[in-house]
Write a structure and sequence with these properties.
By secondary structure, the chain is mainly β. The protein folds into 2 domains: 110 residues, Immunoglobulin-like (Sandwich); 78 residues, Immunoglobulins (Immunoglobulin-like, Sandwich). Helices cover 6% and strands 46% of the residues. The longest helix is centred in the N-terminal third of the chain and has 13 residues. The chain is flat, with a radius of gyration of 18 Å.
Length: 201
């Protein structure tokens, strides 16, 4: 996922929210298991920004209006909503914020916002989607004279995956084949940090 930008996009975002407001109806879609698909599902951001979150088509019927909430209001909040669309606005914090959307029949969906420090390490890619046991992704920290090697890599959920190799500015992460969300953290010897998200399907 690409980092989302600055408030210069707010006019376009506001227009998108207005479009969502004008598109309210009672026949929108979820799948047969009651799972709502959100777009974007994973995104990494820096500093203050505004982002449109929306529900995308699957296979059934949603019961509007949708209800949006966040796991950590200190990082950001949903400030506007209508139809299948909501506007998320961030603060200057660092951490993981989960955006939850529910319809009136309690079908549910999630989006994950990874807030990173402007002065932290830049990890590429900042999010990845892995399917199946043994699936791999190569993470790399931008090479910079200010980065104090060696880097230390860790993940929040070792049951989902582990690092197959680590060295220099990079690490190779391997999936254990279980579904879930894993947060990758890398630190240098001076305490600068960067994060990335791995979604296991």
């Amino acid at each position: 996922m690409k980092r989302m930008g600055l408030m210069g996009l707010i006019g376009l975002i506001a227009a998108a929210v207005i479009m969502g407001l004008s598109g309210v109806g009672c026949d929108t879609v979820t799948d047969s298991s009651g799972v709502i698909t959100m777009d974007p599902p994973l995104v990494t951001v820096t500093g203050r920004f505004a982002l449109v979150m929306q529900v995308i088509d699957t296979n059934g019927t949603l019961y509007l209006p949708l209800k949006w909430s966040v796991s950590d209001a200190s990082l950001g909040s949903v400030t506007g909503q209508g139809g299948l669309t909501a506007l998320y606005q961030s603060n200057d914090g660092v951490g993981i914020n989960t955006v939850t959307v529910r319809d009136q029949a309690d079908a549910e969906g999630f989006g994950v916002i990874n807030h990173v420090s402007v002065d932290g390490l830049t990890v590429t890619p900042d999010s990845a989607l892995l399917r199946g046991t043994g699936a791999l992704v190569q993470f790399t920290v931008s090479s910079d004279p200010g980065v104090a090697l060696p880097l230390v890599w860790s993940n929040s959920n070792p049951g989902l995956g582990s690092f197959a190799t680590v060295g220099g500015y990079g690490a190779v992460y391997m999936s254990a084949g279980q579904p879930g969300l894993d947060i990758i953290t890398v630190s240098d010897q001076l305490g600068a940090q960067g994060t990335a998200i791995v979604q296991h399907m």
